[in-house]
Amino acid sequence: TFTQSSAQTHGGFAFSGLLTPTGGNAQAYVSSEEISLSSLRIVQGANPWVMLNGWFYSPTGTSNFSLSANWFDRSNTYLTTSSSTVTLAAATWTNLIDLWIAPATAQYVSIVPTESGTPTSSNTIYMSNVRATWAPGGMAASSNIASISYDSASLEPTITTQLN
C-alpha cells in the first residue's frame, strides 16, 4: 500500500509517501502516472535522456531497491523497464539519481520506486521529492572533467576544461 505519512519527512515537506509491502510478493512498488516526454522538453530528435531523482528512507535498510522507469509508446503500450538495484542504509535518507535513455519509440515514462526480494510488511520505504526531469547531455560521471558546455543545436555535451 502507498499512503501519506508524517513519521519521516524530508525536504521541508510535512509529509512523505510511505510504501508498505503486503508481504509474500516478489516486489513492492508504487507507480506514478505516465508522464509525457514532451512535457519534459523531450521531442523527436532531441536528447533522449531522462533523470529520475528522489529521496528514500528505509527504517530497516534494504539491498534490493531501485528507482525504475517504465516506458510506454504513443498508444500507452508498455515497452520496457530501466532499473538498477541499490542498497539503502537503515534509518538514513538517501538521494538517488538515475539517468536513463528513453527507448526510440517511447512517448511516456512512469516513475516506479521498487523494493524487490520478497519484502515483508516491516520493510517500509518512505519517499520524498521524487520526480522526472529532462537531462540535457546526460552522460556518465567522469573524474577528470572540470566544466561542460552544451552545443545549442544538438544539446550534446562538449568538454571545455579538463583536469590534468
Describe the model:
The chain is mainly beta and 164 residues long. It contains no helices and 13 strands. It has strands at residues 2-5, 16-19, 27-29, 35-36, 49-57, 62-72, 78-82, 85-88, 94-101, 108-116, 125-134, 145-150, 157-162. The strands form three sheets. Strands 3, 4, 6, 7, 8 and 10 form a six-stranded antiparallel sheet that branches. A hairpin with a 5-residue loop joins β6 and β7 (78-82). The protein is globular. The model is unreliable at 138-148 and 158-164 (pLDDT under 50).
In short:
It contains no helices and 13 strands. The chain has strands at 2-5, 16-19, 27-29, 35-36, 49-57, 62-72, 78-82, 85-88, 94-101, 108-116, 125-134, 145-150, 157-162. The chain is globular, with a radius of gyration of 17 Å.
Topology at a glance:
Blueprint: E1 2-5, E2 16-19, E3 27-29, E4 35-36, E5 49-57, E6 62-72, E7 78-82, E8 85-88, E9 94-101, E10 108-116, E11 125-134, E12 145-150, E13 157-162
Antiparallel strand pairs: 1-2, 2-11, 3-10, 4-10, 5-9, 5-11, 6-7, 6-8, 6-10, 12-13
The major β-sheet equals: 6 strands, antiparallel
**What is the gyration radius calculated from CA atoms?**
17 Å
| Spatial separation of the terminal alpha carbons | 51 Å
Mean pLDDT, rounded to whole units? 84
Globally, the shape reads: globular
Beta strand %: over 45%
Task: State the secondary-structure class.
Answer: mainly beta
* Helical amount: under 10%
Poorly predicted residue ranges: 138-148, 158-164
H-E order: EEEEEEEEEEEEE
Number of DSSP helical runs? 0
Number of strands: 13
